[in-house]
Amino acid sequence: MTYASWMPRYRVMTDTPGKLDLFVVTMIDGRRAALQPIDEYDAALAKARAFVSDHKCQVKVLPMTGPEVRNLLGIRPPDKPEPIDPALRRQMLDRLRRIARDSDDDARRDAFDLLNDMGAMQP
After folding, report:
1. CA atoms within a 13 Å half-sphere pointing along the CA-CB vector of 109
2. Which of 3-12, 16-25, 80-89 is predicted with the least confidence, judged by mean pLDDT?
3. For 75-107, how does the pLDDT look when each residue is reduced to its tens digit (9 = 90+)?
4. How far apart, in whole angstroms, are the C-alpha atoms of residue 61 and residue 77?
5. Domain limits of the chain?
6. Between β-strands 23-28 and 31-37, what pairing exists: parallel, antiparallel or unpaired?
7. Per residue in 64-89, is it b (16+ CB within 10 Å) or e — as a string?
8. Which residues pair with 34 in a beta bridge?
9. Crossing angle of helices 86-102/106-117, nearest 10°?
10. CA 123/CA 120 separation, integer angstroms
């Protein structure tokens, strides 16, 4: 059996961003062309559509989570993190506490998890 797509060969393909997606990756003929924050998804899609109209290529605009991007880029977190400068740690904790206090979505849960991982939560 053979597969013959009814879709044009050169086109833009994408999927709707999910709640956990943090990045949008644009691939041209299987090679990474751009990596942007997810809030630039619409702009990335518009650029991809404009690009494919002038070039014969396959373009994929892919929303991705943090772990997916780390896998794509081959980034492996260290087994043991390096010590953090005390001033930077205070700044990080202040921002995470602000998110935990002011948000009511998944960001709040993530902030609490990070605060717990950093040992900043009291039992």
Report:
1. 3
2. 3-12
3. 887 777 777 788 888 898 898 898 888 877 777
4. 25
5. 12-73, 86-117
6. antiparallel
7. beeebbeeeeeeeeeeeeeeeeeeee
8. 26
9. 150
10. 10
